[in-house]
User: Fold this.
Amino acid sequence: MVLKLKPEFLSAAVEDLQKDTPDDPIRECHPEGYQHLRDHADSLFTLADQKLHTFPFKDVRPCWFRLYTDASIAKALTLMEKPFDLSELDTMVSILDMALIMAGGLGREQLIHDMLSHLQNASEEHQEDSEPPSKRRRLQESSNTLPHENVSLPTIHFPILHMSKPSLTKFQAFMVDKREPLILTDTLTHWPALEKWKNTSYWLDATIRGRRLVPIEVGRSYTDEDWGQRILRFDQFVDNFILQISETEGNQKDHSNIGYLAQHDLLKQIPSLQGDIAVPDYCYLDAPAPEPDTPVALSKLAKKRSKKSSHPSSILSTELACLESEDSDLHSDSADSEVQRNVWFGPAWTISPLHHDPYHNILCQVVGKKYIRLYSPTHSTALLPRRKDEPAPHKRTDPTACSTEDSQPSETIDMSNTSQVDVAAMEVSPVENWDEVYPGISGIPYKECILEAGQALYIPVGWWHYVRSCSVGISVSFWW
Assistant:
């Protein structure tokens, strides 16, 4: 099968890449201009890629992200300017997606999205049967729905209060006065994602027949030694970790069978998905500051420019460093008012270990069910936070080879937002005397819920929370 793009679009893309912007950071690393970039795209890409993997991402100069991005686009354009086959389509999609994942498509986000959109349109003009028959059967089952079997649904002893679509005024008062979690019902009923995202065919269509790349976590928890990160084609992720129901499903000991697309702004990477959801209006309210003398409040006072995420960052980085963003005040709406969206997509027994975040969060369940346990930040000391200089147990990931061989034993990571308490182990072995392992843990009060599809959970800033999927599940979190 031979595909080709419209010459008018290709000319416009080249013209866009040729634009000379005097303050473009790329000039610091590559002052020679467009033609030199096109002529030496491979070597310049290799140079930029080395820079991105030599230093922690927070220490990489913006010019190297820019060079990585533009060299990627130049490599893709070289393939696009002539008729191409499906294997070359795979290569072009991978090149452009890596520019988004590794460098954020810095300065060229819209151009990359346009290029991917034209590639998708070109591929859809031809009815293709490129996948092996066995894969087509698996990805296009007659039911066309993601697996929905539930595993290990616990009995809820300490339920969270529910509210049905509270007004903005009522929700604001709850945040300020109660300062505790809240389940929101009837607030997501207008989301097309509630139906669309259950269908495997929809995901294949949205990802150029599964060709789009996504970063996933492999392993039970980012606190485990055998945890790692990989970048896979979307159809490989779905086929290997979502649709393959093995005899060990539901057994959290089989870590190798757990793959989690976690804390990733998939909506930014694939803008066509944005119309399926909507940012809850509650996220635009003035959120209260963290409670005094809690870890988040103390951390913001001590280091106002530091914020940590619940997972090691997967977009813009394969490093273990936590997500950093600016903040000049104790109040979350002062300098970092943009709502941060993340998608969480995985099979049963994907977990987020007990941790807290420096944001208010509305976690929206789109597909499946999640069990969530939450502890007040006033009990932080008893929850045994990890060290700020904990040795990084994980190994650097090669996104192309999906290898984890090059260890960085000297690296450390601030894990103080993550508890030493292994709630997943406590779930699996409830009769064990966990007070001998974590002194006093049985006496610490908590709240819990099973979050159903179509429901949302408000998690106040600083609240410790453990999250476990009880089925194949898709969630979207909104931090503000």
Observations:
- Residues 62-80 form the longest helix (19 residues).
- The chain has 14 helices and 15 strands.
- Residues 7-124 form one domain.
